[in-house]
Design brief:
Layout: H1 2-25, H2 28-31, E1 39-40, E2 44-47, E3 56-62, E4 65-70, E5 75-81, E6 87-92, E7 103-109, E8 112-117, E9 122-127, E10 140-144, E11 155-158, E12 161-165, E13 171-176, E14 182-187, H3 199-207, E15 210-213, E16 219-223, E17 228-235, E18 240-248, E19 253-256, E20 259-262, E21 268-276, E22 280-289, E23 300-307, E24 312-322, E25 324-328, E26 331-336, E27 342-347
Parallel strand pairs: 1-24
Antiparallel strand pairs: 2-27, 3-4, 4-5, 5-6, 7-8, 8-9, 9-10, 11-12, 12-13, 13-14, 15-16, 16-17, 17-18, 19-20, 21-22, 22-23, 23-24, 25-26, 26-27
């Protein structure tokens, strides 16, 4: 009986080990990296269910305020005070004054959070330093970037202008300013068979890129959601100069009616969060196929670290999966929807 139990254990362990090994080997990108430096445990957490959020997706932290973007809610933003656990709603969904149909938190410039309406590209800023209990400061208008051809709905402020995903022709992301000046663009990663894709498919694939900018505004990192593609560039004399790029895990492509599209079932989810400081870029990575067997594939537990020259530095495993991250000093704030809405805080080890 004892021998039989041992044999059963060996068979089960072998099956589990083989399954894990195959999962890693199917991810060419993750397999190319050194092993994890260890698992990070949360140092703090906050149950967000008490605030009645609706599909929280991204977060920004400023002092003791957490700003969370919502989807399919009456307001685009929920603003939570970490000390009092009070909540304010901001930027109602609509077409009227002070409203937006769908908001993207574009970037944080000091204390001012830039908010862009996804379709019209009307952009306003909310001064988080002026927030008070029960008081929202008025929004300042930055501009309407719809007439600027390179502008997409994702953009960041950089030295001399703005940076935007720009899935037009061969472009992945571009440098431009509000006067219409276009410096140059960085080419898209090659995706075999995607040449005949419709504009909407191309926009969905490349337009949803993640962008982060160095605090000095002279470096940028771009990452894709549905492909393990990374690009590191410098901004010099109003021009983008790519320093390094990685291209792994081409997505599965199918064709229907002569038009190519990305097959989620044959594609690994890759980067779902990005943050940075003066020294490093932090990337939240999934490496699992959509929609995920039990845990949604957009919930990630791999935290990868690069320097601004595009060199891999280290990687960690997160004890609790996350779908979005924000870096505040050496504290990493992580947002998750599964199995319930929560905020986790990790203390990042010092990198030597």
């Amino acid at each position: 009986m004892l021998i039989a139990k041992k044999l059963l254990f060996i068979i089960l362990f072998g099956a589990l080990w083989t399954g894990c090994s195959d999962n890693r080997s199917n991810d060419a990108y993750l397999s190319s990296l050194p092993k994890s430096a260890g698992t990070l445990e949360p140092t703090d957490s906050l149950d967000l269910e008490q605030f009645g959020l609706v599909l929280p997706s991204r977060l920004v932290k400023y002092n003791r305020w957490i700003v969370i973007a919502q989807t399919q809610a009456k307001s685009n933003l929920a603003i939570i005070n970490l000390d009092t656990h009070s909540k304010m709603e901001a930027l109602r969904v609509g077409r009227g004054p002070g409203e937006m149909l769908q908001t993207y938190m574009a970037y944080l410039d000091g204390s001012k959070l830039a908010l862009t309406e996804v379709n019209a590209l009307t952009t306003v800023s909310l001064d988080l330093a002026a927030l008070q209990e029960g008081y929202l400061p008025p929004l300042d208008t930055i501009g309407n970037f719809k007439p600027i051809k390179p502008a997409s709905f994702l953009f960041c402020k950089v030295n001399g202008g703005y940076l935007s995903t720009n899935p037009d022709g061969e472009s992945w992301y571009s440098l431009w300013d509000s006067d219409g000046f276009v410096g140059n663009s960085i080419r898209q990663p090659r995706v075999t068979g995607f040449e005949t894709a419709s504009w909407s498919s191309v926009m969905s694939f490349f337009g949803s890129s993640l962008l982060t900018v160095h605090p000095d505004g002279n470096r940028v990192c771009a990452a894709l959601v549905k492909m393990a593609a990374l690009s590191f560039s410098a901004i010099e004399n109003r021009e983008l100069k790519e320093i390094r790029r990685y291209e792994y895990n081409e997505p599965g492509v199918k064709t229907e009616g002569g038009l190519a599209f990305i097959s989620n079932e044959e594609t690994l989810d890759c980067f779902h969060g990005i943050a940075s400081d003066r020294d490093y870029v932090y990337l939240l990575y999934s490496g699992r196929k959509w929609p995920g067997e039990e845990v949604p594939s957009y919930e990630c537990n791999h935290l990868l670290v690069y320097d601004w020259d595009g060199n891999f530095v280290t990687r960690y495993d997160l004890a609790q999966r996350a779908m979005s991250i924000f870096l505040d000093g050496n504290e990493l704030y992580c947002l998750t929807q599964y199995p319930s809405d929560k905020l986790y805080v990790y203390h990042l080890p010092e990198i030597s």
